[in-house]
Write a structure and sequence with these properties.
85% helix; mainly alpha; DUF5790 family protein; 148 residues; DUF5790
Amino acid sequence: MSQQTLDDDELFGEAATEMRDDVEESLANARAELPPADDVWDVEADNTLGVLNGLRSALDAGAAEEHLRNAKKWYTMGERADAFEDAEDLREAIAEVDDLVETVADAHEQVGALASTIPQLRGALEDAEGEAADDAEADDDADEEDEE
């Protein structure tokens, strides 16, 4: 075997190790950027809309999504180059983080939709209460006229 082949194999091995390290580092960064459980569970506010807005802010997975994308990118490169001796652990870790990021993003979207619905609902309920009060007042006035 020539010296060139040994050097190429050694370089490829180093590159494979670096790719694995990049994937693992990106996954660790993605996990670190996920919202802390307490931030999602413990929200303080004066009203429902404040709670929803606080929760929506806590459910921001933006940076985690970018780190996950980097992990997937380097994993795909390594997989296509057949650089990983055993990539099952990386594949499983990526799937786990991907599920978490997707769940957080879905919850963020749902909370955002609810946060935009609550003020409309409150307004509609206030209008209905006002109409009910007007109807009750009109009924009282009609009853008074009938008694006279």
